[in-house]
Design goal:
Length: about 375
């Protein structure tokens, strides 16, 4: 049977020789038995005449997928989707030719892999094996979808990590962040030689009551953004802002031999920036600045809300100087002046009594030619 009709039950394979009586022994119809085997496999099988690609044989599975493929005819429905030239070229070269098709024999679309190869014992015949690879394609699609999902999640995770890192770097120096990220804790450290700058704006409280808050905070944000660029330019670090107060340090947590010079330059550039801004804007801003050089302790404080902060008398003395400074004046202590006096100009203000620190010699740092030479901000 080569027409794909219904295969008889296994019991019908047993028959008797013609003219034999009921007592004659039964024999097995091997032709029918081979047909049963061929039809029972899960793949489609067919044989085509190589000369004209006429169908010689096909099993039941192939007949289900290509109902119009009848033995003795050229199965155009099957071959219409095949690269005939590629098929012939492959067979001429002694290679198998494999193509994938998407068909819809019933309601469901399936994917087939068709492999054409010359019959081993008869090169005039082409052997066709058709495999249903729908499950394989579904699995590949699932794997690809899963890979895309994982990649999307990894991309989101990287963005979130970058966002968190950016937030943390706003509240602590990078080296402190790296230590905290690696070990989960940071060690409080005393820096024997560091400089601290404290800045505060004059009459900001009154301004906040009499001005539009959105416009006022917008201007403050613009000013602090410019300050951040100046601080970064001189290798210093903006530690924090508290309302209208701005705190910058140099010499911690990374040691810097010219920390006093760096903050002196920063302070002069702050004043220069404010002066130039006032000349171009309606709102006038005036600041007070104090700088002190000495011993400072740096550490992360807080458990749920981390913040890197500095402590010690050096910090308090810088804050006292900022309070004593006149509008647009930069006050520095003698310890700072001794480190920068060969490069900067300052006016000696003599000994002044400072609460908690006794008598201190103070200097008013003044702009010199070096400020104009270092930029236009």
């Amino acid at each position: 049977m080569t027409d794909g009709s219904e295969i008889p039950a296994a019991s019908l394979l047993l028959g008797k020789a013609a003219g034999a009586g009921d007592s004659a022994p039964a024999f097995l119809d091997f032709t029918l038995f081979r047909q049963v085997l061929v039809d029972s496999v899960g793949v489609g099988l067919a044989v085509l005449d190589r000369k004209d690609l006429r169908l010689v044989f096909r099993n039941r599975r192939l007949a289900e997928w290509f109902p119009d493929a009848e033995p003795g005819q050229i199965p155009e429905g099957l071959l219409s989707q095949i690269d005939r030239a590629g098929l012939e070229a492959g067979l001429d070269a002694g290679r198998s030719h494999t193509v994938e098709l998407e068909i819809k024999p019933k309601r469901r679309t399936i994917n087939l892999a068709l492999t054409f190869s010359l019959a081993t014992e008869n090169p005039a015949a082409i052997f066709l094996e058709a495999q249903n690879i729908s499950k394989l394609r579904e699995l590949e699609y699932m794997i690809e979808s899963y890979a895309q999902m994982v990649e999307r999640q990894n991309r989101d995770l990287r963005k979130e990590k970058e966002r968190v890192e950016k937030v943390l770097l706003n509240i602590m120096p990078r080296s402190v962040y790296e230590e905290w990220k690696t070990f989960g804790v940071t060690t409080p450290t005393r820096f024997e030689a560091a400089s601290v700058l404290m800045l505060d704006f004059v009459d900001f409280t009154e301004m906040s009551l009499s001005h539009d808050p959105t416009a006022l905070i917008g201007e403050l944000n613009d000013i602090f953004t410019a300050f951040d660029r100046i601080v970064d330019e001189f290798g210093a670090e903006r530690l924090k802002t508290i309302g209208d107060a701005y705190v910058a340090v140099c010499g911690l947590p990374e040691l810097s031999p010219d920390h006093a010079q760096a903050l002196a330059n920063v302070a002069l550039r702050f004043v220069r920036f404010i002066e130039r801004r006032n000349a171009q804007h309606k709102q006038t801003w005036r600041c007070r600045i104090g700088i002190h050089t000495g011993s400072v302790i740096g550490s992360i404080v807080g458990v749920q809300k981390y913040v890197y902060d500095i402590f010690g008398p050096g910090v308090n003395l810088a804050a006292r100087l900022e309070e004593l400074a006149e509008p647009m004046q930069i006050l520095i202590t003698d310890s700072t002046w001794k480190l920068i006096r060969t490069e900067f100009r300052a006016r000696d203000l003599g000994e002044m009594e400072i609460k908690g620190f006794g008598s201190q010699r103070l200097y008013a740092l003044e702009a010199g030619p070096e400020v104009a030479l270092r930029g236009s901000a």
